[in-house]
Amino acid sequence: MKAKLLSYYKKYLFIIWPAGATIISLLMLSLIVVPNILSLIKTKNESYEITQRTEKLSQKATELKAINTTEYQNNLNTLIRVLPKEKDVGSTLDQLQNLAASNRLQIVNLSYVNNNNEKIDNFQIKTEMIGSLSDLQNLMSTLKSSEKIMKITQIELTGTTDPNLYNASLMVVAYFQSLPKEIGGTDASVTKLTSEEKVQIAKFTSSVLQNSSIASISESITGPRGKVDPFK
């Protein structure tokens, strides 16, 4: 049997050795060379991605460094006064009292309408006041351009014993908005203010500085605004 195998080996020696070498080469190629090539390609791709990300982060760092943090903080403070970050009922009541006083109106009742829905970004204030028709009209104008974003959703007028005075019952909605917990990711580009937004913030800032209690907000503000004059 051994001699037969030896004879068979000698007869096909020129086939067995090349075939064996080929098999070994293929095994080495599949187990060593190919994985190494794939690893090199993956490493190269990762290196390229890291380089690209580093360049973006470097550009972002340059842009962030150029931002005037003092101006940014002042703008943020102004916008928070216009659109508070929380349900600031007390400040809103003060605002309405100041508006009424500046328009020579006498407040009879001023109360907060409770709303347990925490998902709503507004709350209601009910107020009753007495004044002349012209003073009530002036209130409409100043309310829709007040420091805080408010609007009238309901109004009722009744006469009084004085023909020149009216009793006005108003339902006012005041708005607020929570600050975002995150502002973009690490790879997100730096969002810059548009020229229109800068102009609008400048108007807000000028108005707030002129009067801390009764400020003027431009009619072009985006979002809920004061109701159109109901007297017309």
Detail the topology: elements first, then pairings.
Blueprint: H1 2-11, H2 13-66, H3 69-82, H4 89-102, E1 106-113, E2 122-131, H5 133-143, E3 150-159, E4 166-175, H6 195-210
Antiparallel strand pairs: 1-2, 2-4, 3-4
Helix pairs in contact: 3-6
Overview of the molecule:
By secondary structure, the chain is of the alpha+beta class. It folds into two domains: 46 residues; 127 residues, Alpha-Beta Plaits, CATH 3.30.70. Helices cover 51% and strands 16% of the residues. It is built from six helices and four strands. Helix 3 crosses helix 6. The C terminus is likely disordered.
Helical content class: 40-55%
Low-confidence stretches are 213-232
In CATH terms, what is the architecture of the largest domain?
2-Layer Sandwich
Please name the CATH topology of the largest domain: Alpha-Beta Plaits
Report the CATH C-level class of the largest domain.
Answer: Alpha Beta
- Count of DSSP helices? 6
Q: Quick gist of this model?
A:
With 232 residues, this protein is α+β, with helices and mostly antiparallel strands. The protein has two domains: 15-60; 70-176 and 191-210, Alpha-Beta Plaits (2-Layer Sandwich), CATH 3.30.70.60.
